[in-house]
Each structure stands twice: as structure tokens, then as C-alpha cells.
Amino acid sequence: MIKLTTQQIADILKAKLIGRGDIVVETTSTDTRQAIENGLFFALKGENFDAHNYLENAVAQGCVAVVVERECEINVPQIVVANTRLALGELAKWLKAKLNPKTVAMTGSSGKTTVKEMTAKILQKMTACDDEVLYTFGNLNNDLGVPMTLLRLTEQHKYAVVELGANHIGEIAYTTEITQPDACLVNNVAPAHLEGFGSLAGVAQAKGEIYRGLKADGKAIVNLAFYYPEWQKEIGSHEMQSFSYIGSDKDSYADYWAENVQLHLAGSRFTLHTPQGEVEIELPYLGKHNVSNALAATSLAMSVGATLEAVKAGLEQRSMVKGRLFPVQINEHCLFIDDTYNANVDSMKSAISVLENYPAYRIFVVADMGELGEESGACHQEVADFAKEANLDLIVSFGKESAVISQNSEHHFTDKQKMVEFLTPIILQKVEQKQPLVLLAKGSRSQKMETVISELCKLFNLNF
User: Fold this and answer.
1) pTM for the full model?
2) How far apart are CA 276 and CA 309, in angstroms?
3) Cα–Cα distance, 302 to 310 (Å, whole number)
4) Hey, is 120 helix, strand or coil?
5) What is the spatial distance between Cα 102 and Cα 89, in angstroms, rounded to a whole number?
6) 206/352 Cα distance (integer angstroms)
7) What is the C-alpha to C-alpha distance for residues 114 and 83, in angstroms, rounded to an integer?
8) Which DSSP category does 368 fall into?
9) From CA 144, how far away is CA 88, in angstroms rounded?
10) Strand extents, DSSP E, 118-178
């Protein structure tokens, strides 16, 4: 964040200032456990917490001023607002507009973080220093994470790459209004968070809100494989571009498309077609779904000035993110793949497609998909049918509804440790026989399937 005085912040937020107006803040915080210097603390409130009760802790951690909803007894300047959560967004929106870096944003049911990472890598090839590109840290993509991302902006940043997520209608409309992107896209639409959205149509409606916050001269980018005509109302008169990868001649109708795609065990190679020309890409990301993600990233980066050379260099530089097809090489014969960050129907199918391509003994370790509401049973059955067609060597499941995926009561577990104990002799035998083995673990965030990968790594004295 740029340096601001408490008086300047009070003016920006149209808020009451109690105490000195000349105190300078350099960063923001919403976490009293976080040590920062010259910080501005936002006292957020929720159903089960009220940070106003912990202001002394924030000051002890280095905060020199606080944003509150009521006057408190604290010996630092207080900026009193009606709603601290909304004030966080207002300050972020002001800072973004003032510094005005070229900004792209993406949302979707899956692949958001991968597209973000790819886009950031491409744009970093356009700058003299990687630090001139701000991008969302981890998956901080909600109504708090997006403002906190934008509040990291400084005069140094030439580009911003912002991931937007949501679990209810209206959330993306709010965060994209703060972000005001120069270009944005919906990566895909799939059954996810159905409890919050009600239906697939609700998911599409929520994702389409991203086009509402585009700048006046901004570009709306759509995935032709997931385009919903009702988005046109949000897109309005903005310029529209498209990308597509469905593996057919229909792709060539898009502005960005892939040809001659060859999947291999380390990723893929393909010819990338863009409005600037074509180039051969060696993509170090597994699975055909990542070809589509690469097209999405290319369209975003080029919409804010990236060259074809930068696209090639950025896409061919792998950004390793745990939980997202993260490879853990045990030895030359054994590979674990950590895809445990989250799961919905489409990402489950993508993971299965990656696994089935390996010339090895293929183990799928799967857990429940969450937040699917009344459609949960049907969604798990859809994955089960897809997994059966893939003809994997072994499927083991954990949780409640995922039992249908393993299709064998002896291969379903409600205790992760027992699952590990079941898998251990199988894995050790294959390793001893030097038979190639690939194990891929996946499930919704609530299932924490990364703990299974961690326990299995201990068999080989590896820390995960």
C-alpha cells in the first residue's frame, strides 16, 4: 500500500476520525495474529466473532490506527465507519483507481488459481522485475481476500492479476466493482457450491457478474465451451473476445484456440493460435483441461498488452502450487499427485483423465465433494460413471457419498488412517517390484485429503 495519513484515510472513507490525523500507515491488517509495521487494523465482525474486542492485540502487533464501527478505548487513532467490511473494500477500490495498473480478473467453477498463476507468469515476462506484477496470493478471492490483495498495490506495480471467487449471488458483483478490471473472463461453469447458488443456472448467473465491473473500455472474454447468452446483459457494449478448447474444428471460431494438442506425462504440446499469430507451446501442466486454462491466461494477458514471446515464455514456466495436480516424485517408479485443494464434478473428471493417461498402476484416492445440496447424489454418481469408464486399477474412497465412486465396500473408508494402512502394502509391493505406480488424491477442501499424501510420504521418509 502507499503511505497514507489517518486523516487522508478518514476523508477517503468519509468517516469520523478520533485522534491524530498525521499518523502514517503503510499496510493493512484484519488479523490480530499477524505482526506488521505501521499497520491499519480493520475490526471486522461476524456471526461468531468481533475483532473490536481484540484491538489491543492488533496494536501490540504493530498497528498504529484502527478502523472501527464504534468508538473504543484504545490509545491510537480511530476511524469510525458504519461497516468495517465495506470500508475495507472502499479503501481498496480507491487505491486501485488511484494507481490504476493494467488489471485482469478471472472467475469460474475450477481452474481459477491455475489461470491466475499462468497469467501472472506471462505478464512477468513483460516487466523488468517480477515484483511489478501483483497477483492474488493463494486463493484469497472472496469479499475480504480481494480487497486485501488490492491493498498490497504500490506505485511499483504495472499489472494486477486478481482471482474472484464466490459462494453466493452478488459476491462477484461486489468484488469486481472494487477491482474494475481492464479485461475479465469466466473460465468455466460447473456444479459447485450449489447450496449457495441453488442450481447450475445460479452458478452461471453469479459468475457472469464479473463482466459488470469492467472499465468502460474493458474487454469481456468468454469461453465458447461455457458461454451463456444471458451474460450479454452484463457484457453490454464492451468488446468481446473468446477462447475455446473442445478438441474440434469448432475451436477455430474463437480468437484464441489450440491445434495439434499432444498430451504427455509431463504436460502437453500444442500450436497456440492468437490474434497476434501462432506459436508452439510446451506446457508443463498435466491434462487437457490445462490447455484450456492456458488459452484463458493467454487471452487475459494479451488483452493488456502481452506479446506472443511473453506468452510462450510464461506458459512454459511452471508455477508449482500444492493441491493442484502437484507432483510428488517418490522415486523413478513412484509418483504421488496432490490434487486435494478442492473438487467439483468437472475437476474430478479432469483429474481422472490425467490419471488414466499414465502407463502405470493407477490409484485414485477420492473423497466427497461438498456443498452440492440436493444434487450431491447425482453429482457423485456422475463421477462414479466417469471413473468406471476410465478403467483405473484401484479406486479407494473416503467420506459418505464418495462410496459410489469406489464401487466396492472394501475400498471405502470413514477413517483416513485405515485408508493409509490399506494402501501401504499395495504401494510398497509395487515399489519393491519396480512397477510404475501413480497415485492421485482428490476431494473437497473440507475433506483435507492432503493428509493422506503426507502420511504416505512418510513411508519413504519424505516430508510433504
Assistant:
1) 0.84
2) 10
3) 9
4) helix
5) 19
6) 27
7) 33
8) P
9) 8
10) 133-135, 159-163
Residue for grid cell 469492467: 214
Q: Are 74 and 55 in contact (CB under 8 A)?
A: yes
112 assigned ligand-binding residue? yes
CA distance 137 to 149: 7
Grid cell 440436493 in the structure block, residue:
374
Amino acid at 457: C
Has 114 been labeled as part of a binding site? Answer: yes
Q: Any binding-site annotation on 113? A: yes
Answer for the pair 202, 164: CB distance below 8 angstroms, yes or no. Answer: no
Q: Closest Cα partner for 297 from 160, 158, 106, 110?
A: 106
* C-alpha to C-alpha distances, 293 to 85, 262, 298, 300, 426, nearest whole angstrom: 32, 15, 9, 11, 34
User: Is 110 part of any known ligand binding site?
Assistant: yes
- Residues 305 and 117: their CA atoms lie apart, in Å, by 17
Please check whether residue 386 is in contact with residue 349, taking contact to mean a CB–CB distance below 8 angstroms: yes
* Cβ 79 vs Cβ 68: under 8 Å: yes
In order along its 464 residues, the chain shows pLDDT tens digits of 999 999 999 999 999 999 999 999 999 999 998 889 999 999 999 888 999 999 999 999 999 999 999 999 999 999 999 999 999 999 999 999 999 999 999 999 888 999 999 999 999 999 989 999 999 987 789 999 999 999 999 999 999 999 999 878 899 999 999 999 999 999 999 876 666 666 888 888 989 999 999 999 999 999 999 989 999 999 999 999 999 999 888 899 999 999 999 988 788 999 999 999 999 999 999 889 999 999 999 999 999 999 999 999 999 997 777 898 899 999 989 999 999 988 989 899 999 999 998 989 999 999 999 988 888 999 999 999 999 999 999 999 999 999 999 988 899 999 999 999 999 999 999 999 999 999 999 999 999 999 999 999 999 999 88
Please give the distance of CA 246 from its chain centroid, rounded to a whole number.
22
Per the DSSP assignment, residues forming a β-bridge with 283 are 268
Residues 6+ apart with CB under 8 A from 229: none
Compute the radius of gyration of the chain from its Cα atoms: 24
- Determine how many CB atoms are found less than 10 A away from the CB of residue 256: 26
Cα torsion at 261, 264, 266, 267 (round to 10°)?
Answer: 20
Count, in order, helices (H) and strands (E) of the chain: 16, 22
Strands (E), 9-89: 16-18, 24-25, 27-29, 39-42, 63-68, 78-80
**Grid cell digits, residue 127:** 516487466
Q: E strands within 348-449?
A: 361-367, 394-398, 412-413, 437-442
Helices (H), 2-157: 6-13, 55-60, 84-99, 112-124, 145-150
Is 446 within any annotated ligand binding site?
no
Spatial separation of the C-alpha atoms in residues 403 and 207, rounded to whole Å: 31
